[in-house]
Specification:
With about 220 residues, this protein is α+β, with helices and mostly antiparallel strands. The protein is built from 2 helices and 9 strands; from the N terminus they run H-H-E-E-E-E-E-E-E-E-E. The chain has an 8-stranded antiparallel barrel with strand order 1-2-4-5-6-7-8-9. A hairpin with a 2-residue loop joins strand 4 and strand 5. Helix 1 packs antiparallel against helix 2.
């Protein structure tokens, strides 16, 4: 039976590190030995202090110094990585909080069709969770008769970048020749006095294709 030995490259990293430190540390030790061979000795006392002498002392001193430098470099790199990660997380958290303050709440929606002049009225809840916009949808009425529900709609997808809101929706409209239709809205965030609004346009697709203007005003 033949056994296959699998060697992982990562396992060599500690060995290569040790060999590298030893090789560099040997340079001053060999140089001192060639110049002062008779001093090639070392004494070690296991007490509070260690006493070394000769080329051997140079070898150990250089090896320890290189090891400390290596550890410090790794520690500084890791500290920089951790600091960068913390800053990125704090920045992301702060940005999400600011965007949630801009978009989250209850919005009243008023729309107008360019071709017919029909004015629609609705209300919806917009949330901002984990970096994603959530629009609940709502019922549909005419501005002339706000208490009479003529349909409903729901959002399929929404994106908010802090300045623009883009969402697609499906609408069920009893007053339309095509009861079920799809469309998109693109609106820009505007602040006037103490009011926050999203003002833009909407576009319906399919057999009942038409467009118009839309305004979302935050009421809660």
């Amino acid at each position: 039976m033949t056994e296959t030995l699998v060697v992982r490259p990562s396992g060599f990293l500690p060995i290569l590190k040790i060999l590298g430190l030893v090789t560099i540390a040997l340079i001053p030790a060999v140089a001192l030995y060639l110049l002062f061979g008779e001093l090639s000795s070392a004494t070690v006392q296991w007490s509070d202090e260690a006493s070394l002498g000769g080329p051997v002392a140079a070898f150990f001193a250089t090896l320890l110094l290189l090891n400390q430098i290596h550890k410090r470099m790794i520690g500084e790199d890791r500290a920089e990585d951790v600091e960068a990660e913390v800053k990125a997380r704090l920045g992301s958290t702060r940005l999400r909080s600011e965007m949630a303050d801009l978009i989250a709440g209850t919005w009243e929606i008023r729309s107008e069709a360019m071709s017919t002049g029909r004015q629609g009225l609705s209300r919806t809840e917009i949330g901002f969770k984990d970096g994603h916009v959530e629009i609940s949808g709502g019922t549909l009425a005419n501005q002339a008769a706000p208490d009479v529900v003529v349909g409903d709609w729901h959002c399929e997808m929404a994106v908010f970048d802090g300045n623009r809101l883009l969402y697609s929706y499906v609408m069920n409209d009893q007053d339309s020749t095509h009861p079920v239709s799809r469309g998109v809205v693109l609106a820009l965030l505007q602040k006037e006095g103490g009011e926050t609004k999203l003002v833009g346009t909407w576009q319906m697709f399919g057999g009942d294709a038409h467009s118009g203007k839309i305004e979302l005003a935050r009421v809660g």
